[in-house]
Automatic annotation (TrEMBL):
It holds the Pfam family LytTR. Keywords: Membrane, Transmembrane, Transmembrane helix. The chain crosses the membrane at residues 21-39, 51-72, 84-108, 120-139. This is LytTR family transcriptional regulator. InterPro entries: LytTR_DNA-bd_dom. Residues 182-269 form the HTH LytTR-type domain. The keyword Calcium does not apply. It comes from Neorhizobium alkalisoli. One of its GO terms (molecular function) is DNA binding.
Amino acid sequence: MNQAFLNSTLRELQLFIRSPRFWTTFFLVVLIFVVSGPYGTLERMTIGVRLGYWLIVHAVTWAIAIVFSLAAEHLLRSRIASMFARMMIGSLIAALPIGFALGVIDYAFSGEWTEMDNGLHRALFALPLCALFCLLSWMTMHRQIALATDEAIVTPPASSSTDVQVEPEILARLKPQNRGALIRLSVEDHYTEVVTSRGRELVLLRFADALKELGTTPGLQVHRSHWVADAAVDRLKREKGKLFVVMKDGAEIPVSRPNLEITRARFGPA
């Protein structure tokens, strides 16, 4: 596995860990299983034991399925267009290790292996849980994952100190006196406003094309009309229920709702 793959996967794992929506979904599912007591747990276990059992089962199975689904989401990106299909494939493949994990958990609670005494049967038993996980995770997290993917494509990792630093292509479009360290980009009608440490200038260029010319400058698209450079961000600010990125030059850039979690993960709490 290359470094880019590991970095991208870890970035998306952090999205799950930091997402209140994901954890709300997780605990609601656990509660449903505790109350309904499927697979005979309602008859075999008291409410306390059942809570512990399903909490452990879902924590372990979701963790395994997350890793496999995100790995498949990356590895199959060039072969399968649908993000949901890629994540589902990874989740279903995860049924094999999940089947083994379920056997260990059952043994810990009952002291004996259940009648599903081989890995294949346990994997088949785990398939519905894997499909359920994938569906719920995709419904709650697909926007954030897509944003993280776009960020990784648009803003590649900064090169090491031993690499040759390449000037972002977009600076060549500016007047010589305005060429400096990138601070932010913003949409202005059919133009893109480029703000640098030496000035600002409107460039007749689509915003999406401007983002492709950022080179290795670390930064984040926080809104469909705004990109900010990491080094130019001072802090986050919340005002009247809305989140803003406060730049070191005093400018306040709005953060759109789909970008809230990834912005907080990058720049810290408001």
